[in-house]
Amino acid sequence: MHATHGQAPDELTQAIVNYSVQRTRLDDPPLDHAMSPAELTAAVGQTITPAGIGGMEALRLFVDVLAPACISVDNPRFLSFIPAAPTEASLLFDMLVGASSIYAGSWMEGAGAVFAENQALRWVADLAGFPAGAGGVFVSGGTAGNLSALVAARHHWRSRAGGAHDATRPLIAASSGAHSSIKSAARVMDADVLRVAADDRGRMTGEALRAAVDSLSDVDRARLCVIAATSGTTNIGVIDGLAGAADVAEALGIWFHVDGAYGGAGLAAPSIRHLYDGVERADSFIVDPHKWLFAPFDCCALVYRNPSIAKAAHTQHAEYLDVLTGSDEWNPSDYAHHLSRRARGLPFWFSLATHGTDAYSATIEETLDITRRATKLIANTAYLQLINEPELAIVMFRRIGWTRAEYGAWSNKALYDGIAFVVPSSWDGETVLRFCFVNPLTTMDDVQVILDSLA
Ligand SMILES: *Cc1c(COP(=O)(O)O)cnc(C)c1O
To answer: What domains can be seen in the chain, in order of their start residue?
Structure first.
């Protein structure tokens, strides 16, 4: 008898499996909302005790109190931030991965899982037009993907300088519309960001980038180690001028990174593929399958043109790891800032393998279609005013005459009434509303209900 490792009672096993299967089948889960720590304490009490409260009781507390205190990100009227809409296939396989005790950091331990993950990564690399030698790894999210790519870029810059830049503070060029994780990575790396002013639509153009680089002193220009472009921005969904950015990176002989955490999925949509021209020249590229590629959290695909550079930047060396670092097998640990890792690419792989890539293209096009129809509806609604013609699946608009407080009050009420989860954002200093569509189950009726509540 072990205190902790006996077989779980059948009743508990069934209860957990039943709940999970039911949840994966909910197309329209309740929105739900947060509760305060005091409310949760009152409802749940102390769950961690010397004797344990038992599985059935812990599960009951989760089902009755804790789960409803989490917003369902896959609710079709969750249009805030970047929503999620995982396929049932991916959710079911996530359960399987959780049950399988696979260590996916090394080929030695996780060869089968890593092989499958790499086929999914290859699809991403092909979408971006990367060469045969490209490769990478699934990391937890865009934040981790950007950091790992930028660290590889810095490594490349320093190693090519043969020691001359070992103590130079790096400089990263990025648009003012770039995601906050670029700045966060710069802080971690003790680097600076050269902020390139975006145009009036929110894009970094090649011309603006070149002008920003030209305005640098010689000393600062020598610090520039990477250009980080965005395909598409998180707030308004526009794609930087990638070909222009690639030209500047090439002229300077520095790394070109493309952050497609949100919008990279659009590469699979024929109607907008041309917007990404130039991405094929990137040295590194990321896209989050947990955003617009219908996989569960957490999952970011990070792909390098030349993975050996990333490996040189990231491989951890330790006596107990010698058997891994001494081999030339593909060890996912080597390609990002991490060591142990879940085979988090497998739910995405399974869904992609199940449905085929054509189905992915079609579903992404469906979300673009609902975005276009919602845009028309907003444009034709008297009390609303459109701010952008969406390039991707984000539409921004104002409720004419509303203050920040009114936007906030409406947003709260909509959530607590179970109507929708739409939070205010801002554009050019003005409070605005923003819909982000990734869920193919969102209907025009859903959109209409939300617009009516804004009247
Ligand atoms: C969401 C996003 C990120 C961060 O991704 P996480 O998975 O949340 O860490 C980075 N860049 C862009 C453009 C994003 O939209």
So the answer is: 95-355 (3.40.640.10), 357-453 (3.90.1150.170)
